[in-house]
Input
Amino acid sequence: MNKKSMGYVLGFTLLVCVFFGTAVATVHYSTLDMLRKNEALHRNRLICRAFLLDVEGESPEAYEEAIRRHIVISKVQDGAKQRTVYRRTDPGNEAVGFDFGGMGFWDRINGIVVLTPDLGQIVNIQFFDHKETPGLGARIEETWFTDQFKGLRIDWAKERDKRVIVGPSPDPNARNRVDAITGATQTSMALMAFLNAELDRIRQLEHE
Output
């Protein structure tokens, strides 16, 4: 066979594509179950962290058990979509959490925000996934940043886009303000914008 012929080249190319395509598909489908389990573990770990739950161990079952014992999960209709709501009813530790999200600098940022029952303060905030720049906007998931939101006051008397401030404020000691991420101004501004919008919507849903 003439290895320089068009038929040979096309046939060889097709064979290589089929071989590697099959290999990639096989690996993908054989790891789907593991990927789902890892995603569930990541999500459950962040839910427990957001609600400040004590978890007995690091296994997937330990996180599932902590959520089962302390959190009631439900869905509420939010326009054309459903939003997940989490409620902790332990006496003295009551809190309500919502899935929330919006556009960051590069792509969508998704997380959970936990509030006091009166919606007056943020208990905690955690981020499930994002595609912000490593070392810059991606630092939103670092503890030093998320810890700033613990106990943060939501100033409902302010305009909607200033109820929670991420970055500079005329009052540096304002109880509704956290420091922005140095070098990630766009991510910080995007987070402030969609967090305030989501908090406004959450209050509407809670009062419906």
